Amino acid sequence: MADPTPSHVRSIEDLYGPAGRLEAVLNTGRDDAPFTALVCHPHPPSGGTMHNKVVYNAMKVFSSLGLPVLRFNFRGTGTSEGVYDDGHGEQNDVRAALEWLEMNFRKPILFAGFSFGANVGLRACCGDIRVKGLIGLGLPVRAEGRDYTYGFLPRCVEPKLFLIGDHDPFAPREAIEQVLLKSPPPSKLVWIEGADHFFQGIPASPAPKLDATKQAMQQWLVQTYSL
What we know:
This protein has a single domain, classed as Alpha/Beta hydrolase fold, catalytic domain (Rossmann fold), CATH 3.40.50. 27% of the residues lie in helices and 22% in strands. It has five helices and twelve strands. The protein has helices at 53-64, 89-105, 116-125, 173-179, 210-225; strands spanning 9-12, 16-17, 20-21, 24-27, 36-40, 69-72, 109-114, 131-137, 142-143, 146-147, 160-165, 187-192. Strand 5 (36-40), helix 1 and strand 6 form a beta-alpha-beta unit. It is globular, with a radius of gyration of 16 Å. The two termini are 13 Å apart.
């Protein structure tokens, strides 16, 4: 996926949430890009940051289509101010990022989140009229003693894509399919064959599966939004 225009990365110094300044970077896009994008990272206490490999590759897909892409560290992560709030305050961090994109670009927004970032981001973005598409990567149901619920999904009426490794221990197939029964159309679930939670390979198929994940994400974006 070759970038149609050069993308530059710049630090964002004026993104503030309720807990204080949030460390953030923007990958620039085309001036005439029809959307901007926001990507959220996995569980902070488990080492998740905006530089996570899955988050970075999701950004690359948006960037390859010429869209400006914002990534940020949740409160208490990296140099972001505040402390981890078990997914509650982090929803307000997402809302602050949406507000920043709205103020700076005045364009509709596409969202993608990985794992914890998918759950928290979907919670914040569902029902927000500025958000025109939602992508959940590695959508977790239960991870290391933490339960993730999705009772909010019925209000997610915009197009949705869910990309999950078929060997993801945090997203058993039966549980995920039950969860996504609540997701109104248009909604698409893609199982990435031979992939674990981080879209790496499994012993029977050890090659990383991030390329397959990126291809599925790009294909959906192009088909859904004519990008």
